[in-house]
Amino acid sequence: MPSSSKLGTIPVRLNPNRHTALNTVDFIPERNILMPSSKGYAAQSAESPLVPHAFSRRDPGATELTIDILFCGVCHSDLHMARNEWGNAPYPFVPGHEIVGRVSAVGHAVTKFKAGDIAAVGVIIDSCRHCLPCGRGEEHFCAEGATLTYAAKDRVDGSMTMGGYSNNYVVDERFAHTVPANLDLAAVAPLLCAGITTYSPLRHWGAGPGKKVGIVGLGGLGHMALKFAHSFGAHVVQFTTNARKREDAIKLGADEVVVSTDPTQMNAHKASFDFILDCVSAPHKLDDYLPLLKQDSTLALVGLPPEPPSFAPFNLIGGRKSIAGSMIGGMPETQAMLDYCGEHNIVSEVEVIPIQQINVAFERMLKQDVKYRFVIDMSSLA
Ligand code: NAP
Ligand code: ZN
Ligand code: ZN
What we know:
By secondary structure, the protein is of the alpha/beta class. About 20% of the residues lie in helices and about 30% in strands. The structure holds NADP nicotinamide-adenine-dinucleotide phosphate and zinc ion (2 copies).
């Protein structure tokens, strides 16, 4: 509830759910700090487009930094969530979890960054830090639940986290990454979600020389999966519903391209794959892909269509095949992925847009009309 304060004209909000209406600087009496004002684009409901939205973030704590955001990638998860397709969206909702920016302030105990450095933030910004997965650097599997970059309850002040379609972010240095100096910053942004989400399962299931690996869907995640699997030395087959993507897929590293709607092309690969990574955002038939796996092989899902997938158990039992899943990656693996990209000069294929075009970009993403990731140039917010 707003009231007057010892700072006179600055409105004070005592309600911890502070992102609902306040458009000026927040003051937290118990911490005696002013929080930097933020602006971005937010969905106000599942049906409304993203519109300009002002809110505030807390000052960085001792081990935290404030990042002035330069670029933010546009992930299909942002769209799923903005339109409440997973049924758990809070509003107003500021999307964005592929963040690259410049550090503008650091807490006194920060060791990894100083003001002026480039820093990157992905899908999670906090976790319990003491459970078994956190101890192993698998913070994304935190037993108490990792804090997501958007639409999650902040562990420090209980507010709703607001994503990177905005001018700044406050994050603990454990959840911020350094960026290799040789990489283009706009093209680095998608590595923070699309990159690690595909790098991690390809590493886990051993994509490499001598392995035949399938990538399903040539979108934001799919094109990064293709680049990584090729770079790791696997024989890579790109599955796509769109024959016009064939040439691009070859350029991005595919050894073969299969149009998944053509049964003849699909049957030619029966029982031949060591691993298939499914990066599709919409409902589709897993039964089309399971017969293509070798005995004891795995199809891993990273795509998150709102409707649960269905499949015939008969397609799993013959050949003892597995359907598995994978979610982003922990902080050490995310940094390892970024360092690998620096060493091997791997970045995303991007179309850079001003934030004013975000609603058009969402529609184009739904029509699979993006090559292969939109990235918002946040200077357009100014
Ligand atoms: P995207 O850029 O929109 O790509 C999705 C691709 O799926 C499209 O390019 C298309 O590939 C294929 N596709 C779309 N509609 C299809 C349909 N009806 N039937 C068959 N294929 C279809 O999306 P993205 O950003 O890569 O995200 C993909 C999915 O991963 C989303 O559901 C997202 O929420 C999820 N995700 C999961 C994680 C995780 O941690 N597991 C992290 C990030 C995102 P073709 O045109 O080549 O067929
Ligand atoms: Zn994402
Ligand atoms: Zn934990």
